[in-house]
Amino acid sequence: MSGSKRSFVPQPIEAKVKSADEIKNDKGGKSSVFLTILLVLGCVTILFPLYMTIIIAFKSPSEMTNDINGALSLPQSFSLDNFAEAMRVTDFWHSLGNSIVITAATIILSLVIHSMAGYAIGRNMNRKKGFKMIYFYIVSGMFVPFAILMMPLVKQTANLGLDNMAGVVILYTVFYMPMNVMLYSGYMKNVPMAMEEAADMDGSSAWRTYWTIIFPMMKPMHATVAVLTALGTWNDVMTPLVIMSGSDNVTLPLAQLNFQTQFGTNYNLAFASYLLALLPIVIFYIICQKQIIGGVANGAVKG
Amino acid sequence: MNKKKMNDRQKTYILMIIPALVLFVAFNTIPLITGAMYSFTNYRGYGSYDFVGLRNYIDLFSDSRVGNSYLFTFKYAIAGTILVNLLSLLLALGLNSKIKCKSLLRGVYFLPNILGGLIIGYIFSFIFTYIIPAVGSALHIGFLENSILASEKFAWIGVLIVGVWQAVAMNTIIYISGLQTIPADIYEAGMIDGASRWQTFKDLTLPMLMPFVSTNLILSTKNMLMVFDQIMALTKGGPAQSTESISYLIYKNGMDGGQFGFQSANAVVFFVVIVTISIFQMAVTNKKEEQL
């Protein structure tokens, strides 16, 4: 079990990290204290907004005086009232559920549809012109800004009855297709054709060979694709904003946008809500930091 | 037998690509074509419409609001791309050298990348509106006493700060993975030759890093040109439309402003601009890479 978990880490990057560190360590020498201090100080720019969010989220409105202390000093007591109220106002569990369903469904569809396409293209693009053309056709979608698709898509999804979460999932599957197909078909270069040939000998159909042998072998790329797709869909505002505006369902970021007016000047309520909306992805990041950073680096470098 | 196998294989390949292809045609190519078609009409988003030929395109060039949105977007994208790449290169050099708590520090600096742009925008909006003016009046620094977001002249800098804050994380990670591809013996050779730190960076590190520089430049230019979330959260295009990005203008006037046809033309031009810039950047950086 632990073995299979490890292989989720994109191996190439991981290997590089180790070797470079080892070389550096071999040379001996002490780590630079000055540089470490400098970088720790730099972290303030990252952590200050988050510290402020947490502090304000726990305070009561009466503690918010008009000077800096009002916003930045520690709260008199760490009360959860703001969070309870924010959950009620923004229908937190409902929008959290929607965000999870949309992200999970997009990842599953991407892993299935994009990996199949990437595999077929990767195995054929050097021999068959048609596949090469399809490859460039799909990858060129990377340059199409959402702004140009947005207005026609609103009409189109409404006509098809897809102005809802299902529609958003389908659109994400299309938006992330160029990047993911490129990643998968590139990865196929590392998988020798002998794999399929051996299975063919045993009388397995190409379809079966794919799902039993090739698909599991693409695991490192699945991790990269899942991370990149998840980060993109989880935080996206624009697509659900224009596509689902007619339905009662909202995603986590969209709820923040919609309830902005209801928060009014109650910043404590607003920040409690922001913190709640940030929390799931932060927890996920703390647990899977290595996979996420590895996945992002892997995807960008290959892409 | 073998031939039958080959046929089975080819059929399966085609079968596998069909779902992706159908989806892509239906939800990328068709809306792209319909969008282009609407750009030749006076469609308001509802009701009937007529074809008006190239009028929308001609009007685009005399529309000051569209012109301003291009000015803002380019100003933002150019300043942002330069800042992001300078900062992330410095940060990557720091995070890749011999320091303590390396993975913890990397983890912290990557954090902004995973957080949603909208919520980060709201948090920074509070900082710009309350914290910085409070600091400004406590220290009697005049130009800090008013919110930067309320200033027609400087609001774009507020948007820029938030955009850069988030984008640096991603580029840093890419530069770090680039730095790790550089073999250590090159540095040893440089040290033997008595190269200074700056020389080492300029003559050894930077040339080796060039492919990653080009990846980062293309990536951040494209993302910066499409800025939307930060504007939605920070300024909503204001004050006085001074921070209206192209994406935001298309969204606002195309969806609600009754300018479906006109903004479609704007979107088509925007698409052409993005493709041109990307191709130009790729051509230039490829040339640079070849030279080195």
Describe the structure.
Chain A is an all-alpha fold and 303 residues long. Chain A has helices spanning 2-6, 11-26, 33-58, 68-72, 81-90, 92-124, 129-139, 146-159, 165-175, 177-187, 194-201, 206-217, 219-235, 238-243, 252-258, 260-263, 267-287, 289-302. In chain A, helix 6 packs parallel to helix 9. Chain B has helices at residues 2-38, 55-62, 64-95, 102-114, 117-138, 155-179, 184-192, 197-225, 229-234, 246-256, 260-291. Chain B folds into two domains: 1-35; 39-291, MetI-like fold. Chain B is built from eleven helices and no strands. Chain B is mainly alpha-helical. Chains A and B meet through helix 2, helix 3, helix 4, helix 6 and helix 7 of A and helix 1, helix 3, helix 4, helix 5 and helix 6 of B.
Q: What topology emerges from the helices and strands here?
A:
The complex is a heterodimer of chains A (303) and B (292).
Chain A (H helix, E strand, L loop, with lengths): L1 H5 L4 H16 L6 H26 L9 H5 L8 H10 L1 H33 L4 H11 L6 H14 L5 H11 L1 H11 L6 H8 L4 H12 L1 H17 L2 H6 L8 H7 L1 H4 L3 H21 L1 H14 L1
Helix pairs in contact in A: 3-17, 5-17, 6-9, 6-10, 6-13, 11-12, 13-18
Chain B lengths: L1 H37 L16 H8 L1 H32 L6 H13 L2 H22 L16 H25 L4 H9 L4 H29 L3 H6 L11 H11 L3 H32 L1
Helix pairs in contact in B: 1-11, 2-11, 3-6, 3-8, 4-6, 5-6, 6-8, 8-11, 10-11
Question: What is this structure, in a nutshell?
Answer:
The complex is a heterodimer of chains A (303) and B (292). Chain A has 303 residues and is mainly α.
Oligomeric nature of the chains: heterodimer
Count of beta strands of chain A: 0
CATH architecture of the largest domain in chain B: Orthogonal Bundle
**Number of E-type strands of chain B:** 0
The top level CATH class name of the largest domain in chain A:
Mainly Alpha
